[in-house]
Amino acid sequence: MKILVTGSNGFVGSHVVAALLKEGHEVFASSRTGDASSFNKQYPTYRFIQVDFTDPFSLHDAFEFVQPEVVVHCGAMSKPDECELNQADAYDVNVYGTLQLLLNAETYQSFFVHLSTDFIFDGEKGMYTEDDPANPISYYGRTKKEAEDAVAEYKFDKAIVRTSFVYGKPLYGRDSFIGLIAKKLKNNEPFKVVNDQQRTPTHGEDLAKGIRTIINKRACGVYNLAGKDLLTPYEMALATAAYLNISAHQLTPVTRATFQEKALRPLNGGLNIAKAQRELDYHPMSFAEGLEKTLAE
Ligand SMILES: NC(=O)C1=CN([C@@H]2O[C@H](COP(=O)(O)OP(=O)(O)OC[C@H]3O[C@@H](n4cnc5c(N)ncnc54)[C@H](OP(=O)(O)O)[C@@H]3O)[C@@H](O)[C@H]2O)C=CC1
Ligand SMILES: Cc1cn([C@H]2C[C@H](O)[C@@H](COP(=O)(O)OP(=O)(O)O[C@H]3O[C@@H](C)C(=O)[C@@H](O)[C@H]3O)O2)c(=O)[nH]c1=O
């Protein structure tokens, strides 16, 4: 199938592009800056188009050129703290940008697969299902909820994929939080890590495979594609130290109250993946397996 992937330079987008290319799809990768990958050297079915999806004219031309059967929208302003501090930009990219993509996708009746987040929840309940009510506590979360609402109005086939704390070996571009922890440990640097925020860390390859299944099955609706283990970032850091056989003495557990972040993050996060397991045969690796895949030299 002919698939447009936005946010292809990003952590999630790069894994999605790789998984789709491996299955022989015709992939049009798109990001705001130049192509950060080397896929054009490996896959004849790969193309890259540089597009700012907040620019309606360039987006219109890109869609006219690609005429995608499927759009996987990974592009976003994805750093909650940045969104909290730059709310107009966050709204422009995460909400207005998504709206622009939806308007163009309607012209080609594309199947629209939208990436969303556990940060649309307030973290009171935890282990959220697809049916739980959203109540974002950060501006990032608010923009992602508004984007979901826009996708819900889309007239043609659509899927909303919620995920959480994506990690793994970066294919190119930025590293994940696990990579940051490993670097701090290897450099014997002190590192404060929150221990009161529960997450279901999701390996990028699992997420990408789940999205590929959604595309192949044209599975419409909301799906949680997350990891199966619930850990705090501090517990992830301890597991990383243990795997690397490095002392954890430089790791200090802190709380959301004492670790002053710009954006509030849900305390009891975590996504229940029972629906994806049932309907998509989605069976993610354990965090221990994911850690090994991420850190193996
Ligand atoms: N990472 C995570 O833990 C989680 C991510 N998600 C969601 O997954 C998606 C991807 O996240 P992630 O991979 O981490 O994000 P990254 O920050 O790694 O990548 C963001 C991507 O979006 C592109 N982009 C940003 N603004 C624009 C724009 N105006 N026009 C075109 N492209 C743009 C960037 O392009 P360029 O680099 O060229 O500027 C980049 O390719 C997001 O929707 C995020 O909300 C949800 C839950 C967890
Ligand atoms: C940098 C840093 C972060 N942390 C905590 C904060 C946070 O809970 C966790 C990860 O921090 P990060 O800033 O890397 O990630 P964070 O922005 O919290 O991750 C979020 O990304 C967006 C895209 C999402 O949609 C969410 O699902 C979530 O994955 O670790 C520390 O404890 N110590 C630190 O020094």
From TrEMBL:
Enzyme class: oxidoreductase
RmlD-like substrate binding domain ranges (all copies): 1-296
Biochemical pathway: Carbohydrate biosynthesis; dTDP-L-rhamnose biosynthesis
InterPro entries per record: dTDP_dehydrorham_reduct, NAD(P)-bd_dom_sf, RmlD-like-bd
Keyword ATP-binding on entry: no
Catalytic activities: dTDP-beta-L-rhamnose + NADP(+) = dTDP-4-dehydro-beta-L-rhamnose + NADPH + H(+)
Keywords linked to the UniProt accession: NADP, Oxidoreductase
Superkingdom to which the source organism belongs: Bacteria
EC number: 1.1.1.133
Family, similarity comment: Belongs to the dTDP-4-dehydrorhamnose reductase family.
Purpose of the protein: Catalyzes the reduction of dTDP-6-deoxy-L-lyxo-4-hexulose to yield dTDP-L-rhamnose.
Protein's recorded name: dTDP-4-dehydrorhamnose reductase
Organism of this sequence: Niabella digestorum
